[in-house]
């Protein structure tokens, strides 16, 4: 009888863990789908993602942080590429996102010209203010303004000879006061509702470059959003003595703008936040995790390592100092203790069209989830 009971417990325990991974995979598949168009600035990608997350919060039973709705709106300028995205070099048409990217601050241009070599990787069409830069890897980003030139970064492997002539048909549009929103929800504490543990992740990514190419952003940061939603769902079903707050930020890729806006316009007192955990790039973990601010908060970092060792979760927990590389930063600047946790190993896709769900392993997702829950429990003691 005892053996049968043990087998049943093990079966249902493993089923629960598998379900956690399945939940994460569904979230990542959803957020990286074409419908959300890279969760960016064209095709209402970011707006669709914001509404999806708010619906999930409501479905889990989270309350709006301000008592009204889940949205904290703000605006910023952004340069977009909604239309034509055509580049031909030496008579060969290049593929957007695969063979070339347009630097995010570039202006639109429709022209033909010859290229003058400036160094081993730089070629210029001075008449049309077009520059070609040969790269080993293409990495895109977001710009809030438009330059007076067009910079095209080309994968070296896409060309059989040095660039000599170029034809471009690229459309850009600067959007002033682009409308974005942070998504904010809470699970009220049962004993100490004025004490807050906060979990954050950014839901935006790079969006689309032209009308046919988008950047899925599986690891960055659909994976972190899956972790945040897993935590939100868990704590909604298992309320703690402290209030659990969940912040999904927009504008991270444009300069960690959503978190900056929240810290300057907080919906809850920042002094009530006892600790903050920010998750970004949470989709791998075969080589462990890195913890930003570990050296800033050594006692909490030691506690995290103890929880990890006791649970035998992740192979390594690396320490890193202060860094302005994600949404935790503005909170730390305001005196809120915070860790930014990201996974190590696995895929190398980052800010490119190859950061897709099907190659994201999520191999340490369950262990990272358990580590965060265990660490959070220790912090509340």
According to CATH, the fold-level topology of the largest domain is: Aminopeptidase
Please give the CATH architecture of the largest domain. Answer: 3-Layer(aba) Sandwich
> Total number of helical segments?
7
Radius of gyration: 23 Å
What's the story with the biggest beta sheet?
Answer: 9 strands, mixed
- CATH uppermost class of the largest domain: Alpha Beta
Fraction of helical residues? 25-40%
Number of domains: 2
Query: How far apart are the first and last residues' alpha carbons, in Å?
Result: 37 Å
Number of strands: 18
What can you see in these coordinates?
The protein is of the alpha/beta class. It folds into 2 domains: about 20-80 and about 175-380, Aminopeptidase (3-Layer(aba) Sandwich); about 85-170, no CATH class. Helix content is about 30%, strand content about 30%. The protein contains 7 helices and 18 strands. It has helices at about 1-30, 45-60, 220-235, 255-265, 300-310, 330-335, 365-380; strands at about 65, 70-80, 85-90, 90-95, 100, 110-115, 115, 120-125, 130-135, 150-155, 165-170, 175-185, 190-200, 240-250, 275-280, 290, 315-320, 340-345. Strands 1, 2, 12, 13, 14, 15, 16, 17 and 18 form a 9-stranded mixed β-sheet that branches. Strand 3 (about 85-90) and strand 4 form a beta hairpin.
């Amino acid at each position: 009888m005892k053996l049968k009971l043990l087998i049943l417990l093990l079966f249902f325990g493993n089923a629960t863990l598998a379900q956690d991974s399945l939940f994460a995979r569904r979230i990542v598949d959803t957020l990286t789908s074409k419908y959300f168009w890279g969760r960016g600035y064209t095709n209402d990608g970011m707006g669709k993602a914001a509404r999806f997350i708010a619906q999930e919060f409501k479905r889990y039973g989270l309350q709006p942080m301000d008592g009204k709705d889940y949205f904290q709106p703000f605006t910023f300028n952004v340069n977009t590429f909604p239309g034509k995205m055509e580049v031909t070099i030496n008579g060969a048409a290049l593929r957007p996102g695969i063979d070339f990217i347009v630097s995010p601050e570039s202006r639109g241009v429709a022209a033909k010209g010859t290229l003058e070599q400036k160094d081993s990787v730089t070629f210029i069409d001075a008449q049309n203010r077009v520059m070609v830069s040969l790269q080993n890897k293409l990495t895109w980003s977001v710009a809030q303004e438009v330059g007076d030139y067009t910079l095209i970064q080309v994968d070296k492997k896409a060309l059989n000879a040095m660039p000599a002539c170029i034809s471009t048909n690229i459309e850009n549009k600067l959007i002033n006061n682009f409308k974005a929103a942070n998504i904010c929800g809470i699970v009220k504490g049962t004993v100490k509702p004025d004490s807050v543990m906060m979990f954050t992740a950014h839901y935006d990514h790079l969006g689309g470059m032209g009308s046919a190419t988008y950047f899925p952003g599986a690891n960055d940061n659909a994976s972190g959003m899956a972790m945040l939603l897993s935590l939100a769902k868990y704590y909604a079903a298992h309320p703690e003595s402290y209030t659990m707050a969940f912040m999904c930020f927009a504008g991270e890729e444009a300069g960690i703008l959503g978190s900056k806006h929240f810290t300057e316009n907080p919906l809850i007192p920042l002094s009530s936040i006892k600790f903050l955990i920010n998750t970004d790039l949470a989709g791998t973990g075969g080589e462990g995790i890195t913890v930003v601010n570990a050296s800033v908060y050594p006692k909490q970092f030691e506690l995290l390592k103890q929880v990890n060792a006791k649970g035998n979760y992740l192979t390594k927990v690396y320490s890193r100092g202060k860094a302005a590389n994600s949404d935790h930063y503005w909170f730390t600047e305001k005196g809120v203790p915070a860790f930014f946790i990201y996974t190590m190993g696995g895929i190398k896709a980052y800010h490119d069209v190859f950061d897709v769900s099907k190659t994201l392993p999520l191999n340490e997702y369950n262990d990272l989830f358990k580590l965060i829950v265990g660490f959070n429990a220790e912090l509340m003691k």
